[in-house]
Amino acid sequence: DQQVKQNSPSLSVQEGRISILNCDYTNSMFDYFLWYKKYPAEGPTFLISISSIKDKNEDGRFTVFLNKSAKHLSLHIVPSQPGDSAVYFCAASARKSYNTDKLIFGTGTRLQVFP
Amino acid sequence: DTAVSQTPKYLVTQMGNDKSIKCEQNLGHDTMYWYKQDSKKFLKIMFSYNNKELIINETVPNRFSPKSPDKAHLNLHINSLELGDSAVYFCASSPWTGKNTEAFFGQGTRLTVV
User: Fold this and answer.
1) Over chain B, what is the mean pLDDT?
2) Are B91 and B32 in contact (CB under 8 A)?
3) Cis peptide upstream of residue A79 (ω within 30 degrees of 0)
4) Could you give the CA distance from residue B40 to residue B110 in angstroms, rounded to a whole number?
């Protein structure tokens, strides 16, 4: 039962353009959402997060949007840079339900930014 | 200065052996985790410890036994290794602040059972 889904396994974007990565979830108890970036042979690195009480959070080139009614979130990267090429994982947590910050991860989207 | 460090980074071993993976964090966090990334790239939580106490065990076989000697360390012992245990194991930590927060991950340990 995959509670967090990333339906696009890969995405290719030209440098300077916008990258949009999507994520859907099924568990309405999730109250915190995160995006992680992962390079090969390294651990996931935290990128940006959003609480369920917000619909947008911005940090530099990265913006996360949350649509609770659709159970959907997206990560926008603009402008995209070659160094952004990595696998991006969407994750969710439900602290009140689990009494911990355990993360439920999506399957990842491989982003490739080409010159 | 590494925040969450795991050793070893690579581990190749035969079926039936017992092995350990060590994890240390220098962030002063109260909570530590073990996650497993399988061949299909699914990242799933295995265990969560808070101040040396086990709070989550996600139906992991009892051949896997985490041990937390202090809140900065969470080691993973695996007995009677099986081929299906081959995966990348990630240690992580997060602060216990009463609010939602992100976890910090180690670089992973790639375990190959032959």
Assistant:
1) 92
2) yes
3) yes
4) 14
- Measured in whole angstroms, the distance separating CA B10 from the mean position of its chain's CA atoms is 14
Alpha-carbon distance of A98 to A24, in angstroms, equals 20
H or E element, residue A98: helix A95-98
Chain B interface, mutation test: which of A8, A51, A87, A103, most B Cβ atoms within 10 Å? A103
Q: Which residues of B touch A36 (CB under 8 A)?
A: 105
How far apart are the CA of B107 and the nearest CA of chain A, in angstroms? 4
CA pair distance A10, A8, nearest whole angstrom: 5
pLDDT for A54-88, tens place per residue?
999 999 999 999 999 999 999 999 999 999 999 99
C-alpha distances (whole Å) from A11 to each of A30, A84, A111 are 26, 12, 5
DSSP assignment string, chain B: --SEEEE-SEEEE-TT--EEEEEEE-S--SEEEEEEE-TT--EEEEEEEETTEEEEE-S--TTEEEEEEETTEEEEEE-S--GGG-EEEEEEEE---SS----EE---EEEEE-
Whole-angstrom distance, CA of residue A25 vs CA of residue A14? 28
The secondary structure of residue A97, as a DSSP letter, is H
